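COURSE: Structural Biology Practicum
ASSIGNMENT: Worksheet 4, Part C
STUDENT ID: 0417
INSTRUCTIONS: Below are two proteins. For each, the amino acid sequence is given first, followed by its structure token string. Answer the questions at the end about the second protein only.

PROTEIN I
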Amino acid sequence: MTKKIFKFILIIAVIILSTFTLSGCQKNEKKEEPEQISRETYVEPLQNYLEGLKTKNLELVLKAYPEFMHMDQKLQLTDIEAVYARYESLYGSNIVFDYNIGEPTIVEENDYGTLASRIKEAYPDAGDISIDKAFILEVELTISGDGVKNANNEEKQEESNEGNSSENGESQKTKTTDHQDFYVYRFNGNWYIF
């Protein structure tokens, strides 16, 4: 009877050991692949930044940055309003920000140290930064307005993004599209832009 129990336990132990050995479960270390990271997780800080600009919401813009950057001391609502004023001078009133965030480009692990060094160089208060994941996201940003008014307060009309000549021969844009790359990186379990 004890031989049968011993044999049964031995068979169970061999099955369990071979299952762990063949499945690679030695240490429960999971390597995250890009498809295992939710897009909304790493895109969130960039969306906060862009939506903050779009809605003139300073708090939302600040959420995109880690505390050590002290952006709350460097960026004010008047800075966002100044951006809008600049665009109004170029594209007219009722400025609209539209954006499209493209697919991520994976930053290789061997570049994490370089990225962390750049951050530490720019922000000495950062302390020890250990980046464990990073992507580059291309953003297509479109800024449009109602068109600039001439001296007679008549609006200069546009029929395309390039701008057409108005009655007095001047050309004015009402819209522009630009592409910009943003780094998003994760350290201490949180995602930020840089």
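PROTEIN II
(use this one for the questions)
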Amino acid sequence: MTGNCVKSFARWQIRCAAHPSCMELFKQMVQLKLKMTDEKGIKHEEKLTKEEQQRFEQLVSKLAPYFEKINGTAKP
């Protein structure tokens, strides 16, 4: 993991600690992201099956409110 990824993951662990389901969804998303990303950090979504691509999109959608909160872009 790069430095930014480690920092991002650490922030997620802190924010999701009170929400176990959030952390589980985040872990699933990271696993899929790692599967589709090459050693240079470039995403290749075609590495995922259609089902995995759909699951990834679902996870991103479910986690969006948490991303907004962490990034400070959530609407009050």
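ANSWER KEY EXCERPT:
Q1: The chain has three helices and no strands.
Q2: Helices lie at 3-16, 20-36, 50-71.
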